Amino acid sequence: MKPPLDEFMCFYGVGNHGGGPTIANLECIRRLDGSADLPELHFSRPEAFFENITDLAGLPIVRDELQNHAPGCYAAHSGIKRWNRLAENRLLAAEKWSALAMWTTDQPYPADFGRAWKNVLFNQFHDILAGTSIEPAYEDARDQVGEALAIADRGLNLAMQAFAWRIGIPQEAGSRPIVVFNPHAWEGKQAVELEFGKVTTEDALLDDAGQRVPFQRIQSHATCGGRNRLCFVADLPALGYRTYRLIPMQTLEISEAPRVSATDTVLDNGRFRLEFDGRTGYVSSLRDLRAGVEVFTGSAAVPVVVDDPADTWGHNIFKWDKVIGAFMATSVRLVERGPVRWTIRVTSEYGRSTLHQDFAMYADRDPIDVSVTVDWREPLKMLKLRFPVNVKFMKITHEIPYGHLEREADGDEDPLQSWVDISGTSRDAEITCGFSLLNDGKYSGDVTVRDIGLTVLRSPAYANHSPAVLEPGGLYSFIDLGIQRFRYAMLPHQGSWETSGTVRAAAELNQRPFALIATYHPNGALPQSDAFIAVEPANITATVLKQAEEGNDLILRAFETTGAATRATIRLLKWGRVISADFGPSEIKTFRVSREAAQPAAETNLVEWVE
Prior knowledge:
Elements: H1 23-33, H2 46-53, H3 78-105, H4 113-122, H5 137-164, E1 176-181, E2 188-196, E3 203-206, E4 212-213, E5 215-218, E6 228-236, E7 240-248, E8 261-262, E9 266-268, E10 272-276, E11 283-288, E12 293-294, E13 302-307, E14 323-326, E15 328-336, E16 341-350, E17 353-362, E18 368-376, E19 381-387, E20 391-400, E21 403-407, E22 414-415, E23 419-426, E24 432-439, E25 444-447, E26 452-458, E27 482-494, H6 502-510, E28 514-517, E29 529-531, E30 533-536, E31 540-547, E32 554-560, E33 566-572, E34 577-583, E35 588-593, E36 602-604
Antiparallel strand pairs: 1-7, 1-28, 2-6, 3-4, 3-7, 5-6, 7-29, 8-9, 9-10, 10-11, 11-12, 13-14, 13-19, 15-16, 16-17, 17-18, 18-27, 19-26, 20-21, 20-23, 22-25, 23-24, 24-27, 25-26, 30-33, 31-32, 32-35, 33-34, 35-36
Helix pairs in contact: 3-4, 3-5, 4-5
């Protein structure tokens, strides 16, 4: 049933840069003062709007981006952009597991998720998320998005605890259980990092079937004795969990785990070989050993510094291509080695700034993860990372929300989401291949006929709007000065991005698995490993599972990821529900699933109204 709506809305517009009133303001004025010379405007419901415009002939159909205005906004203020990405993904994960806990364990669904989403959405207003507000606005934004993250973390923890306390885990001397939760609707191997107590070389990690799982100790977040951080690759069920346990190793036979061969400048896992120039710190070669092709045409992951005198919005500028320098290495060395991953740390400097890039290659995962820490001290400059992809006849694809868009290799600064891909024909062999660049908090970049440029940051003055200019010797605050961290991943592939796991790999980088240190529950009714969903085929992704806005039904949202019409089947495994639906290319569908088993799932619109 559709809820009743007011006959009209009256509010004060705040986003009209031109200074004139918004349509809604005109309606307020007309109704308040009885002006007869203003247009007759009607506000009721979205359907009424579309019903009224269907009779207007000659309206153009736009199938591309509506505008490309002030592209400096796509990179300004790394903080708000990373907070936004983190909050969106954390809330999505918290909703999924809270919905599953509600139906599986009767755990009450959190009532404050709505408040959290409102905090996130409020700060997506175009001057806040764009990075163009005054500096104090980002103190408010930090606190509001921080509240959203706190709500998400609390709800997620309650849901995971509701499961962990019901999993049957027998007591075992010296055993320390760990439950790992997968937020994604597909199974797969995902990297896990977990702060832990003391771990020794005499310990072993076992899965729920008693099979030994390679793990290694990595640097703890604490600098003190008696603490470790565990790293291992978990083989996780689709939107499910798996229980692991750390036990004394002397009770087991020692078997050799797969390893990566490495030196200070080379990583090789049998699928990819990554080489560094010890002088510059740049990637000198990334070779796909299975395809026998070189991924790059030259130095890659090159941190270039670009002159950036533009205002905060980047008005009237479409390309940032005046390179004035580049970071150069002060150290290239192997800092992690073990059965799970090997990591080379490249430390480099430019001016007063320092950049650390940790390149991690796993024994049994394709993406090469890169953890970045940058201490930036360069006002009115931009930092980009450049990757020259070794293909001809290139097709350039950017992720957009719930879809993708092909763009030209024109070097313009364009918005992107969590991935950008170049695919084509290798220059080394006549095979189709490509390179996907994934990230967990950046929204801007450019692609030329030579390479991809991921925009890491830019440092204009806060809220400097053209034609106003900075006065020489004036005291200003510049955006993005100081320390920031983010991750990106390099994913070479054969074939196209559509068939190479790009969408899933990017989602796994942004929504990482959650690990919980558990305890013994010998009488627990839940199995040590379980899955709650199955989605077929792979180009259909279920991104949302949550409680309905009204009632205790579940809302499930999915979309087609590759631009191909598809017949899909979605199974909620524990409740015997099967949803079969036809998806058009890149189509989003939303379904309402009742707790009454006899009632079939109903397709709804995005605001959960059943037509």
